[in-house]
Amino acid sequence: MPILKNRYCFTIIFALNFIAFNALAQKGSYIESLKTKNRWVDSVYDKLSRRQRIAQLLFVRAHTNKGRAYEDSVAQVIKDQQVGGLVFFQGGPVRQAALTNRYQKLANVPLLISMDGEWGLGMRLDSTISFPYQMTLGAIQDNNLIYKMGQQVAYDFKRLGIQINFGPDMDVNNNPNNPVINYRSFGDNMYNVAKKGIAYFKGMQDGGLLTTAKHFPGHGDTNVDSHFDLPLLPYSRARLDSLEEYPFREAINAGISGVMVAHMNIPAMDSTKHLPSTLSRPIITGVLKDSLRFKGLVVSDAMEMKGVTKYFPNGDADVRAFIAGNDIIELSENSDRAIKLIRRAMRHNAISDAEFEIKVKKVLAAKYWAGLNRRQTISPVNLSADLNRQSSKDLVQQLSDASVTLIKGNSTTLKLNPFLKTAIVSIGVDGPTVFQQEMAKSFPTCRVFTVAKNTPAIELKNILTWLKRYDQIIVGIHDTRLRPQSKLDYGTDVKLLIADLASRKNTVMSVFANAYTIAGLPGIEKSNNLIVCYQMTPELQKSAAKVIAGTLKPTGKLPVSINVFFPTGTGMQ
Questions:
Q1: Residues 465-476, buried b or exposed e (16+ Cβ, 10 A)?
Q2: Secondary structure element (H or E) that encloses residue 258, with its range
Q3: Beta strand 210-211 pairing with 164-165
Q4: How far apart are CA 344 and CA 340, in angstroms?
Q5: Which has the closest alpha carbon to 512: 530, 543, 536?
C-alpha cells in the first residue's frame, strides 16, 4: 500500500506540473506583451533608483560545482548589487534548485534565471537529459519533432526555475573548420537553419520559456573562436544581408523573444578597427533594432570572452555594449564596476532617458511574462524523476531515428544475411559499444572486434587477416570525445584500415561522429553502404542498428556539405 500511495502522489504532482506547463502555453508571446502597458513593470521601475535600474541589465555567472565559497560569493553579489539575473553553468539539478531558491530570496526584484541549453539541460547539468546536437537535428525532415523537443526543453527549464534558454543557435555553419559553432548549427543551408530554429524556439516559447537566437549577425563562417580572440567577418554587406542574417530575419518575423549578439569584427557593417559587433551601435541599434525592427531582448554574448575584452579591457566593453543597444549585458568581468561605469556614462548623456527606460522595462516585462511577478519556489519533490521523464527519453530516440542518413547504398545493398559469418567492428573505442550489442541481436553467428584510435600497424594487420574469414562486415566509426569535432583524432594506420574495409563489397559502415569527419577519411566514399549518425549516443547507435537490421527506414538528409561526393541534402531511402 505505501508503494501505491507514493506512485499516486507522484502522478498528482506530475499532473499539476503539466497543468501549470500548459497554462503557460496558453498566454500570448513576450513580443506581443511589450505592446501593452504593464502596471507591475511600471510599479517596479518607479521604485528603483538609477543604480538599481542599471543593475537589472546585468546577468552574472553561477555554478553548483564550485563549492560553497563560490556560491557564497555569488550570493553576496546578488545581495549587494541586486543584479537582474543569473546565467547557470555546470553542476547538478538538485543543487541548482536549492541554490536558485536561496538566491531568489536575496533579490528584491526576482532574478531572471538563464542557461545555455542548446540541447537541453544536459548541456550543463549532470543527471539530466541531453537531446541531439543541432547538426543531428538538421538532418531530420519532420520539423514537428523539433517543435516537440522545444516543448520538452521548456518543461525541464521551467521545472528547474529557469526562465531563459540562450538558444537556439541560428548560425549558418558554412565553414567546416569553424572551431566554435560547427555541430551546434542546424547546417549550412540557410533555409533549413531558419525552419528548424523557428520550430525549436516556437516549441520552447509555447511552453512558457524565453528564447534567444544566436549569434547575430552570424558566426557560422569564422575560423576563430571568440572565446579566445576576435574573429573577422570580411564579407560584403550584400552577402551578410542575404546569407548570415537570413535565419535571424526569419526568426524575428516569427516572433522570437530574444537575440544574442556575437563578438565579431565586421568591417562591412562597422569599420571601427577591432570593434566587436557586441559593442557596435550601427550593428545593434542600426541594423538589428531599426532595420530588422526587432523589439525583443537584445543580449550580449559573454562579456568575459577574449573576443571582446582583448581590445576593450577594464570595463570599457560593458559601457560600449550598453551604449550600442544591448538590453542584457551577460557575464561582465566585474558587474559592480560595470554598474558604476554605466552610471557615469548616463550622467554624460550616453543614451537618452527614454532609451534607457525601454531597456529596463523590457527586462522587467520579461520577468512578468515568465511569471516572476509572483515569488516562485522550486519544489525538490520528484525533481529528478520529472527531469528524466520517459516521454523525453522516447523523444530522444525518435529524433535519433529520424536523423539517420544513408548517403551511400539502398535498401537492397543494406540487406545482410543474418545467418552468414559476420564481423562487427567498432573503431575508435577501447571496448564493446552499444552499436555492437544491438547488432549482435540480429546476427547470431557474429564476432565483435574493437580497434582503438591509435592501434599499431602490426595489430591492424592481424585484424585484417581475421576479417578475411568473415562473409560480411559491419563497421562503426566512433568519436568518443565530448564535443564531436570536424576531424577524427585517429592514427594514420587506423584511417588506412577504414579505407581498406570500405573497398570491400560486403561491408556496411556507420559513422557516429561529426559529419564533416568523413572528408578526412579518404577512401570511405567507395563504401557500398555508408550511414551518417552525427554523434556517438546510445540512441543513435540503436538507430543505426535498426536501419541495418531492416526495421527502420533512414529518412535523414545531410545538413552540411562534406565534399564533392556528399553535398548538402544527400540521403538515400
A1: eebeebebbbbb
A2: strand 258-261
A3: parallel
A4: 6
A5: 536
Task: Find the helix packing angle between 335-347 and 316-324, rounded to 10°.
Answer: 60
- Contacts with 349 (C-beta within 8 Å, 6 or more apart), sequence order: none
Instruction: Look at strands 329-330 and 297-300 and give their pairing.
Output: unpaired
Q: Are 80 and 105 in contact (CB under 8 A)?
A: no
Cα–Cα distances in Å, from 565 out to 132, 243, 319, 522? 25, 24, 49, 11
CA dist 405 and 533 (Å) reads: 7
How many angstroms separate the CA atoms of 164 and 391, rounded? Answer: 22
Four-point Cα dihedral 245, 246, 249, 255, nearest 10: -120
Rounded-to-integer distance, Cα 217 and Cα 239, Å:
11
**How many other β-carbons are positioned within 10 Å of the β-carbon of residue 175?**
18
Q: Which of the 8 DSSP states describes residue 277?
A: G
| Best CA proximity match to 298, nearest among 309, 306, 290 | 290
Q: Do residues 260 and 166 lie in contact, with contact meaning Cβ atoms separated by under 8 Å?
A: yes
Distance, first Cα to last Cα, the chain: 52
Give 176-207 pLDDT, tens digit per residue.
999 999 999 999 999 999 999 999 999 999 99
User: Quick one: which H or E segment has residue 395?
Assistant: helix 390-403
Q: Distance between alpha carbon 339 and the CA centroid of its chain, in Å?
A: 30
Sheet with 258-261, side-by-side order of all strands:
213-216, 258-261, 297-300
Contact 304, 347 (CB under 8 A): no
Residues 301 and 278 sit within 8 Å (Cβ to Cβ): yes
Q: What is the pLDDT of residues 222-265, one digit of tens each?
A: 989 999 999 999 999 999 999 999 999 999 999 999 999 999 99
Cell of 220: 557560422
User: Among the residues of 404-453, which ranges form H helices?
Assistant: 411-414, 434-440
User: What DSSP letter does each residue of 110-127 carry, written as one string?
Assistant: --EEEE--TT-GGGTBTT
Do 233 and 224 contact (CB within 8 A), yes or no?
Answer: no
**What are 360-385's pLDDT values in tens digits?**
999 999 999 999 999 989 999 999 99
Phi, psi of 307 (to 5 degrees): -60, -20
**Helix H or strand E encompassing 329:** strand 329-330
Threshold 0.90, pTM exceeds: yes
Contacts 24+ apart (CB under 8 A), 5-11: 10/382, 10/385
Residue 141 · residue 189 · CB < 8 Å:
no
Give the DSSP H or E segment for 13. Answer: helix 2-25
Is the bond into 93 cis (omega within 30 degrees of 0)? no
Give CA–CA dist 373/85, Å, rounded. 14
Torsion of CA 558, 488, 484, 400, to 10 degrees: 50
Confidence of residue 411 (pLDDT cuts 50, 70, 90): confident
AA letter at 562: I
